[in-house]
What does this fold into?
Amino acid sequence: MKLKNLLIMAPLVAMMLVSSAFGAMTYTEILQVPWGENEAELRPGSYPGLQTGPLSFQIEGETIIIYDTENKKLKRFGPTGYISSEEVPMNYMLDFYYEADELYLMGQHKIYQREDGQWKQVAEQKDLKYMFMGFRESENTVIARHPEGDLALGEQRLNKPAKLSTRVTRSLPSRVHIDLGYKNIDLHVPNVGSVDYIGSAPGGKHYIYAESITRQVPLAVARYIYLVDENGKVHARIILPRQQFSYIFKEFTVGPRGELYHMHSAREGIYMIRWEYDPDGKGIDVVYPERFSEVYHFNGYSEAEPAIANPPLGKASASSVTRAEAVEIGDEHTRHIWTATAANIGTTSTVTTPEWIQIGENVSIPYKWGGWNTIAQFDAGIAAGKLAGDRNTSVVDWGNSVGNDCSGLVSICWKTSQKYGTSTIHNVSHQLSNFNDLLPGDATNKAGSHIRLVAEWTPDGKLIQIEATSSGNPGWYTRYYTWNLSQITDYVPIRYNNITGGQVPRPTLLYTVSENDSVTLAWTADESIEFTGYKIYRQATGQTEMTVAATLPKGILVHTLPQDAGVHCDYKITAYQQDGSVSELESDIYAIKTGSSGKQVLIVDGFDRFSGSGSYAYPTHDFGAQTGKAMDAWDVAYDACANEAIIDGLIDLKDYDMVWWILGDESTVDETFNTVEQDSVKSYLDAGGKLFVSGSEIGWDLDNKGSASDKAFMHNYLKAAYAEDDAGNYNVSGAAGTVFEDLQFAYSQDGSHPGTYPEDYPDVLTTKNGSVIALKYGNNKTAAVSYEGTAPGGTVPGKVMVMGFPFETITSAASKQEVAGYILRFMGYDITLKAEPFIPQTAELFQNYPNPFNPETRISYQMHTDALVELDVFNLRGERVRQLVREHQSAGRHEIVFDGTNLPSGMYVYRLSVNNSMISAKKMVLSK
It folds into this structure.
């Protein structure tokens, strides 16, 4: 796909108001469109909590295209004024992009493309928490911005986000980090708020958006655009007006010659402004004309909430709520699946149901002016034939409709005993002195207007919040939305008085390194959070569960424990709160085993991707421990570490005879091997090291989507090349004439096998620079390559093997052991392979029945030995919602009835673990 060559806009004579030099930048007003109802005007909209107008724009030659959101039209303006308009057929879009005759439309979670007059969906983000953040153009490709990575439309699989070529993040209190992909630079911004990357300009310059908090309560923010070069030098700083009449989703874009365009919303209408860099200009700071100096914000114009008494709805009083519970309740309101009948939709003198509600299945609790309903009360009201939601803001209807307004939702999430409005919620909460103190479960509030529940912070200083809102996508519903701090100007940060505990961090286990009689563990965690300390858990071979081996105070991040020689042990770290008010958060699980011949194998865990677009759903895993168990039968010693320990120089690969690198389906966003890791691997292989690496996106990331240096590393050191994105086959066998010749096994497509996860895009590889085929898929495509010889910078022979699918997705523990034995034998270890499996199957999990179900279903499993059994149910965020079994059980078939009465509709995962090892997991659907 080729994008048209966008020309810098010629002067729009009829509309150009001002063109002036402002130091390092030249300022030009190229268009002004007034507010109004006429076709040549733009329409604002005022809703409870937000005033909106046009959301985005595009520059196309001499034409400016503006998305008149309230009228659902794309309007074109040229040198002589209004040209034409086009209806937007999709509801509730945020951004658009024209490329010749093709048109892309972006909603919060879906992207559509019109090609040859036909519309099709080309991308979807299924995790409602994270939304698309706008279109941009890069290297002749339409790019959809997303927190997990940029998505190149038309080129990429929908679940394969591309690497963020430039990532901007913040560090409090005053530092902005700019990662250009090949170089990192820092920018000083006092009391930094939200930050973002706008685009690049000629000469290696970049436009960076950054906010500075000038007042914490109520919030006030100054906004800037910095023009910086690759050495961190600031060439210009544009001081943006402190006026925003309406909310704009995409305010800025960069033209083909590096000019910056700004769509500015003022009282009188929309201004289109162009800034151009003048290298001969004097000074760095540039400002807008004096007529833009008045300070106002769209939060000051939005429709106020109703002044109402407490509704006559009984609620059980709750003295406290945990942060996790508060966010979970809000999350359930955004995802709740319910069924409407004709009786639930309509208009009366007091109620108007939102337009998006349809007969049949709907998602999200609708907005109701003055509403205050739990999910159970909402479902009961729908079943009783009450109207769903209410967008009539002239009167509050109590008895005929169900749903929540913004403060009703927060009151429900906080489990308050009555509904508190935005003007009365101070009775059960207190104001924080600093926005940066906000934690999940807190809220941002503007008395008399709107309130939102905090879900999490993003690395670039934005707030993901849950709100019952009248505006947005689709409007009059409950949603997640990501806000810049400047967009919540005049709000105050508040905390519920009865929210408990706070939050503990999730530690990152950096390494488990053993000596003959001891093991040293190191970890890191966010210690700015208030919590008590850490617990080290250990499970040795023969033990049925992990037990606490040490309890340590906050501040200690390295600890040494006694370790029996020659015994496989699993370790994990948790952070905990002494009063038990919040659940412990655990790290990944790593394994160690000492040996008489010193340090032999290092297991490197480089798999950080989970949820979102990845196949693995949970924030932690035991794949390092699984790998150790697979090697345990072969009498080799192994330590383990996170790839962060390699990056930070805490572990030297050259201390080990062999390195086993886990990459799962790590892809272009988190990177399989970044430049530091590549340098470490190069040095190791140059010194004659032995490397095994497995993952389904190595070729995709390094060779197909990588830079020239990425490709060189893949070809010259890993001795492999990318051939295809999807092998389409899940059986593997050894290549004839190799050490792997007799090997046959399978890996999991759907994640139903014990200890696995779905593998949907296994790479097909090809040999490169002297490597040979080691493993083949069942369709004869190459699954793995191997190499014996010297690396480009070395003189000592080493060995490399690269596998195009994750080792941990191999379908059974016995097969994992067998494959590990073949790999170790290739690497030079004295391995006598056994013909029989080494680990008998301990249990089998069956599909629940019925499925879907409402509200009960039966879950059965077969135990082949007596063991400790755990059967748990998780939601799709990996959070346990129910523990059904935790007890020692005898061999035989077992069955349990699961009742989902108090859970929202949706998909759940039930997981069987035996002796603290996961055996299998399956999906089930609760449909109410």
User: Anything to note?
Assistant: The chain has five domains: 19-300, 321-500, 502-590, 595-826, 843-926. The domain at 321-500 is CATH 3.90.1720 (endopeptidase fold (from Nostoc punctiforme)). The first helix runs from residue 323 to 335.
